[in-house]
Amino acid sequence: MRLATWNVNSIRQRERHVAAWLARVQPDVLFLQEIKCQEPDFPRAGFEAAGYSCAVVGQKSYNGVAVLARVPFEVIHTALPGLDGDVAAQARYIEIEAAGMVLIGIYLPNGNSGGEAGYQGKLAFMAALKARAEALLAADRDFAILGDWNVAPTDDDYAKGALSAGDALIRPQTRAAYRSIVWLGLTDALRAVHPTGKLYTFWDYQSACFQRDCGLRIDHALLSPQLAERLLTAEPDRRERGEEQPSDHVPVVIDLAA
DNA sequence: ATGTCGGCCTTTGGCCGA
Q1: For A69-89, what is each residue's pLDDT tens digit?
Q2: How far is the CA of A233 from the C1' of B1 (A)?
Q3: Which residues contact A130 (CB under 8 A, 6 or more apart)?
């Protein structure tokens, strides 16, 4: 079972990249973030022709998530249960059931815009996500949460100079909230496979960041305990960042046994 | 060197978000 997540920074700009990537990597389930369109404008036809069913949670201009899957699935939630306020109206969450698992795709608020209220929205999203994970653990479900978390969990997870001190991606409260989710008993798949050292999933378009490997690890896949026992590999696909007109994020691919 | 993208309105440039 191959799971993946990719912030594509506009699906209409990246349709060909995604189609080629599906053909090359053959994921069973791919979560997308920042599709930046409403559901009717999602270019589903090409993906469906390639054997991938699509579920889309879109909005105009910003945000937007989707899932493409070549295994049968059912959409369970299109918004994060328990979340209120402005951020709750944004297209940032999709939850499906597939192959006996609950699979969640998220686009967590960046938290650097909108002042302190914007940052509080990020924390509110993380609190509600923690509650959702707790509920799934209590129900003894196998689950994974994949997506753009907009959190660089430790100092190994961003290049020096890639972020300013006080950035919402590394604020202590941000990291504490991330840890509190992991510490429920989940496994950060990339770090389970690559425990130390530089490991990035995003390079800013500005200042030749990719050429200088001035990146961030902000796209994560967290696995519930029983799924973690099935973890085989977890890799960022850096190759995609070197393609023509790439997204600023690369896909993260997780392989589970059976 | 406030540097690059994407979307959209205020629309052929400026703004926001990232």
Answers
A1: 999 999 999 999 999 999 999
A2: 41
A3: A177, A180, A181, A184
What pLDDT shows up at residue A7?
Answer: 98
CA distances from A70 to A25, A74, A166, A204, A221 (A): 13, 12, 41, 31, 19
Query: Model's pTM, two decimal places?
Result: 0.98
Return the domain boundaries, chain A: 2-256
Strand partners, A105: A94, A146
Q: What is the mean pLDDT of chain A?
A: 98
What CATH class is the domain A2-256?
alpha beta
| Gap from A208 CA to B4 C1', Å | 9
Q: Using CB atoms within 10 A of its CB, is residue A59 exposed (0-12), middle (13-18) or buried (19+)?
A: middle
Kindly determine whether the C-beta of residue A87 is less than 7 Å away from any atom of nucleic acid strand B.
Answer: no
Question: Is the C-beta of residue A62 closer than 7 Å to nucleic acid chain B?
Answer: yes
> Could you tell me which residues come within 8 angstroms of residue A153 by beta carbon, excluding any fewer than 6 positions away?
A175, A178, A179, A182, A188, A191, A217, A220
- Per-residue pLDDT, A179: 98
Instruction: Please say if the pLDDT value at position A258 is more than 90.
Output: no
